[in-house]
Amino acid sequence: MFCTVCMFILYLTFHIQFVRSVRDDKLGLNDKDLKRKRDPIRYALSYSIAVFVIGFLLHLIIATTVDVLLLPENYRDNMNQAAALKIKQLNGKCPMITAHRGLASQYPENTLISFKAAIEHQPDYVELDFRSTVDGHLVCIHDANLNRYLGKQRPGWRDKPTESFTLQELQTLDFGSWKSSEYSNTPVATLKQVIAMFHQLDANSRRPTLMLEHKTGTVEQLLEELDAFTDTKQFIVQSFNWPFLQQLKSKRPDIRIAAIGGGDMSESMMSHILKMDCHAVHWNDQITPQIIDQFHQHGIAVWMYTLNHARQWAYANQIGIDAITTDHCDQLRALQDH
To answer: What global pTM score does this model have?
Structure first.
């Protein structure tokens, strides 16, 4: 903002001087025959400076507007505080990458083709959401109803709870056309299918960790699916439902959990999270450097969702975020590898 004000004052000073020169005919602009003969260098230089200053001002205004739209209100203070606290990522490197619902920017979210596309870009985590069907299967669906996915399919089913359908009913639906006709007839993915797909990946390659976000379903249902893993480091369970995580942790202390939340974090919330023995906290961009630093002191990673712009990625990196959740894992990976 300071640079913008300075450049604006500079432009006003130049503009006033330029207008006076034109008015007094010091540049020879009032005489058409002499327009290109009298002091053409001064005219060209003055015009070029004017264009540069206006362009620079527009750039600053656009950049400031983008920052206001994409970043939290106090982002500059946060960056200064993070620098003062010397916050660094727990892994000592740049933030890890979480593929949000797969490569959701290009493919239908939470589907096998979306997960497979994301894996090609070697994210550190692949995140998915799971819900329970009425007959006890865990399926990869984010929304509480099917309205966003169905389009013109089954109008009577759109507003019904996802949990009210059987797996067989969901398997009759197209979960790809809402994204693009290119993905028509994409089936619903079950958690069992996704885990099986991950087991088929080469263990010697850079296999991502599965980030399983609980929406609905019981601890017992989830534990039955998790038995397919040979190592608890292959996955992590996260949820907005903290009591669910505590129940899971009480039955399987070896399972890593992450508490999801958003907004301002109170001292009581932080205290609660610390008592839960979380591996990580998954928060939105309202988390502050002081909170990040406190979690780091307890060895707890801090992840941020859902960031889809390079400015947001840079901000998260500067304030010490350990993992960035994004719909564009391909772009973020390319940026980090560049």
So the answer is: 0.84
